[in-house]
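Thread: "does anyone have the structure for this chain?"

Original post by V.I.:
We have the sequence but no experimental structure in hand. Need at least a predicted one for the grant figures.
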Amino acid sequence: MSLSKELEQLSASLEGTLLYDDLHKTLYSTDASVYRIRPKAVAVPKTIEDISKLIKFAAKHQISITPRTAGTSLAGQTVGDGIVVDVSKNFTKILNFDAIKKTVTVQPGVIRDELNLFLKPHGVFFGPNTSTTNRCMIGGMVGNNSSGTTSIRYGVTRDKIVEIKGLLSDGSEVVFNELTSAEFIEKTKGDTLENKIYKSLYDELSVKATQDEIIKEFPKPEIHRRNTGYAVDILLKSDLFGGTEPTINVGKLLCGSEGTLAFTTEITLKVDDLPPANNIMVVAHYHSIQESLESVVVAMKHHLYTCEMIDDTILDCTKTSREHIKNRFFLVGEPKAIMMFEVASNDAQDAENQANALVADLEKNNFGYALVKIYGADIEKVNELRKAGLGLLGSIVGDDKAADSIEDTAVELSDLPAYIAEFSAMMLRHGQGAIYYAHAGAGELHLRPVLNLKKTSDLKLFRTIATDVAILVKKYRGSLSGEHGDGIVRGEFIPYMIGETNYELLKRIKLAFDPNSVLNIGKIVNALKMDENHRVISGRVEPDIKTFQDFSDSLGILRAAEKCNGSGDCRKLPSAGGAMCPSYRATKNEKETTRARANALREYLTYSEKENKFDQKELYEVFELCVSCKACASECPSNVDVATLKAEFLYQYQKANGFSTRNKIFAHNAKLNKMGSLFPSITNFISNQSLVKKSMGIAPERQVPLLAKKTFKKWYENHKPQQNNFPNGQVYLFNDEFTNYYDVNIGIDAFELLTKLGYEVVVVDHEESGRTYLSKGFLEEAKKIANANVNIFKDLISAKAPLIGIEPSAILTFRDEYLRLADDKESAEKVAQSAFTIEEFFKKEIIDGKIKSDSFSEEKKEIKIHGHCHQKSLSSVEATFAMLNLPANNMVTIYNSGCCGMAGSFGYEKEHYQVSMQMGEDTLFPKVRATAQNVKIAAAGTSCRHQIFDGTNREAQHPVSILRSSLK
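Reply from O.Q.:
Generated one for you, tokens below.
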């Protein structure tokens, strides 16, 4: 029987899902590393029994099982050519919390930050704190023995292991926990695989020569961030093997084993008391990397909670990041490197004294040209900038990328300056610079050479540098992997790092656990070659992809997709804030992530043999639930703008496969409304008939938006300003297609509000925004509109007479899509600089003192703001806050809400209705339902207001209408 038939039978036996279509094999062929290995299938199990069946199937067919949670591994741990088993969707329960013992039991798919949200009311937390905490999962942290920023105070994941439940390579269940020596020896008796494992460990580690070899060759015991091979040196601490500790826990051996010894299904962890309430961060600025590292030895004499470093390459990347440019507020000048030292205390004055003592000590030793103290919520902003480091490196334009061949070395803290000096000299010999960031206080830096792995010469350098660094790390008895694991990229070097004798020991231990060679083959022992199976093939001729939009800012659409390095920021949940990615949040499917869309596009544009490489049903499937919210354009640290990629894909795909009738109707909405507005009552009646909605594929639960009795354009023609006295000057109001036909009352409110505040409001004849065409991939029509509008406004508007818009998705096309579509780039840029949302305009005028609170009533109003996704990405909801906060007694807050889920026509489409409503349920709907009836809800987006009504039966108003009602 063929494997596909066998997989079909296996699928029928599982409660979960088994996927072996081309798309899912593509999506799971990569993680956050440089590697690409296509699996034979992807499993999303629902039960432990499912996992057991998968393991037994793999053993029968001699294929590998690769466990996977968030897929943020940097060394290739979660890619394999067998079955990738994704537990991130269904194994997400927090099973038990013991307040007395201070332990918590979780399934492997629990996100680290979600766990700490659960633990915080109990006054405890799980300490290890990686840069990926808002999406990385406990199973992955155990697999890698993760540590992060807090390890100098709270230790690493291995330190927290109390118990691990899992499945062995024969599918049998097992529990690893703390045992006395006698209990351990008792476990060696019997014929089960578990018994054989204990017997093998006992026989191997009882030998004095073996113990001596481990102590001699493994990294220095002072280095607590260490992941080289299996942690057999930890087991030697037991009195069973000559140590002093009365107990032994084989679960600690599993921690850092990358799923090669057992498949973890349940983890019990020790937790710590919450950190002190008062913390202060001292950010030291340096003229050189070497100076920054030398200062760490001085700083670590203080009672630090974190000690982190970022170099100028990453800091420079933040200059072009929409999300992180605001987090640069603390920087002084252009430092070559910064160190972030954090002190903490339950007493505020004590924390201040600690910070002052640290500053004084650094100044005494002439370290740092600027020492800035950061307090309160600003500390988290600085931390967010640091956390984004890896993702930000993906935003580097072109094929030269920060390669992760040597990014995880750790040495003893006292060796760090000398080690880095030798490392820097070595890199100079190779004609290379490097990127430095991460955990200086723990003796670990994430060092990355900048290489173009599409070039054969740089691929060779990838190995050469890795080899030379391994030699250097060994010289200092350091660990080649501090926290990211061995995986593929470092697995080859384990024999050198710990010696051949110890490596043979690891092979025997692997054999004892996995005699049938099933569990994550090619990692740690018998590792795959580190310079093979890459995402990109060195020396190949890159495909020349012709696009309708201008992707020159990324050197083409393929490189725009390649900016995604797999860091998985798009998998964060609503509790992490932001809006990315609403379709993933609604479905919890990897296929609906920003990462999946970029990876799929990269794959098919690179490897497809079709003349039109976009003509792929798999691409249509992966882009289908993208709502073009543009959250990824700002929240993805690599600036992967999937909405723009989707528009190009839809255009190219539909060129080959045709434009559907429904898409034509939605795209040409403004033209149809122009005709329908001649008889609006008849149009409204017909368009909302069930048969009409059914024929158009519109969800029966939706009401098609109603045309106004009179368009805003007609209203304006009858209400043009007659006076000439406008003390605040002139503005051009963009009469978008939604305001003109549907939301005429909002257009009137805007006109009256601005007029009464002393502005001459001018509405000229212009084209619609083109938003509906963009959303459906009608790029030729969108381009004509962009060219026309740029030509109309290029000589009209200016900083003194700007163009302002009511509907965010319409006005912001001038600042976004028009720049890719317009033929006259110079004029498009000029127009973009003078195009603002009406909220942005108000904020500026308030700051300039032209609009004052005394123009408004002092009536008390409480207002909650839901921001439109395009506002959040391309503008700022804070502008709405400033505008609505102007009246003296307004109490304004911003909902921490994601995407509403309507997304133009998306939420009206029958097949998308349920997922649209689920997007709303993720954050927005519950917040609206919890809002008192007397509180006004502000929402600038027309789609948002309709979705809020459909989901909660609450009326939301445009901020303009709310402010208009407060005018005296």
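V.I.: this helps a lot. The chain is about 40% helix and 15% strand.
O.Q.: and The radius of gyration is 30 Å.
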